[in-house]
Amino acid sequence: MALGYRMLGSVEEAEDLVQDVWLRWHDEAENQREVVLVPEAWLVTVTTRMAIDRLRAAKLRREAYPGLWLPEPLISDGPASPEQIHEVADDVSIAFLVLLDCLTPEARAAFLLREVFDVDYEHIAAAIDKSEAASRQIVHRAKQRLTAARGSERQRSRTPPKEQYALLHRLIQAIMDGDFSGIRALLAEEAALVGDFGNKGPSLRHPLSGAQRIAQLYYAHYLRHGRNMRLELAFLNGEWALLRYLQDELESVQAFEFEGGRIAHVRIQRNPEKLAGLKRYSDLLTAPNPH
């Protein structure tokens, strides 16, 4: 499931993938059980190959997707140790999953198997049907590509979850107080905001740039919805995220990147299809204060 989600960026598609792999294990592999010495290796190999095929098909579909495509949010356990937080957030954050889209499906699989799941090159080669030498080269090039992609953005260090929580708590307070200056003060001058709305509502085909414009958007939401809007924090994808409810219905999820103690990037997920899973687990969304 962890591999499927990181490959496809969708909880629902990852669940379908795992189910199909499990069915294949029971159906196609039934006569081969005696020669399958390590079931986990067999399952990982088949999951990888099926995920590569599905991601290729998904990339074609996304070419016709209305507006920007963003991954589906994933419910995370609350913050644990600092080391565990850093490890999880680094490989499952929305920002990281978006970054992975610069890789081909095959390179994405090889990189994840090696760098996230610490699979040896012998098994990576078997999973992607390449030689070990070729697999090493694919992973090496994937790392170079990701480094270049990160370099095209401003390098941002990981903000500790307690600081994330405090900043976003202040953002909620400023929005609900209608405090435009307070909202703007929490945003980096060159902040950017993007959104995935699916087929529902207007799409942001280009980032909304600058603290002033983004603060105006938040302020406009306050003027339009007032007390019919509720904002809460939840621990999603290994980081704190903002949930927005309208008339007590989950309307969007906002993921953030931070820089210098301010919000540098906002990614809004409003596609109802990608929020359906979170709505089913609404009682798990609101996480406790990390202090």
**Helix-and-strand structural type:** alpha+beta
Major sheet details: 6 strands, mixed
Query: DSSP strand (E) fraction?
Result: 15-25%
Q: Which fold name is given in CATH as the topology of the largest domain?
A: Nuclear Transport Factor 2, Chain: A
In the residues, how many domains can be counted? 2
| Gross morphology | elongated
- Which architecture name of the largest domain does CATH use? Roll
CATH first level of the largest domain: Alpha Beta
Helix content: 40-55%
Largest sheet: spatial strand order: 2-1-6-5-4-3
Instruction: Report the order of strands and helices.
Output: HHHHHHHHHHEEHEEEEHH
Please write out the topology.
Blueprint: H1 2-8, H2 11-27, H3 39-62, H4 82-92, H5 94-100, H6 105-116, H7 121-128, H8 132-151, H9 161-176, H10 180-185, E1 187-196, E2 208-209, H11 211-225, E3 229-236, E4 239-246, E5 249-259, E6 262-269, H12 272-280, H13 282-285
Parallel strand pairs: 1-6
Antiparallel strand pairs: 1-2, 3-4, 4-5, 5-6
Descriptive report:
It is a single chain. The two termini are 30 Å apart. A six-stranded mixed sheet has the order 2-1-6-5-4-3, with helices on both faces. It contains 13 helices and six strands. Helix 1 packs parallel to helix 3. It has 291 residues and is α+β, with helices and mostly antiparallel strands. It has two domains: 113 residues, Butyryl-CoA Dehydrogenase, subunit A, domain 3 (Up-down Bundle), CATH 1.20.140; 125 residues, Nuclear Transport Factor 2, Chain: A, CATH 3.10.450.50. Strand 4 and strand 5 form a beta hairpin. The chain is elongated and about 65 Å long. About 3% of the residues have low confidence. Helix content is 54%, strand content 16%.
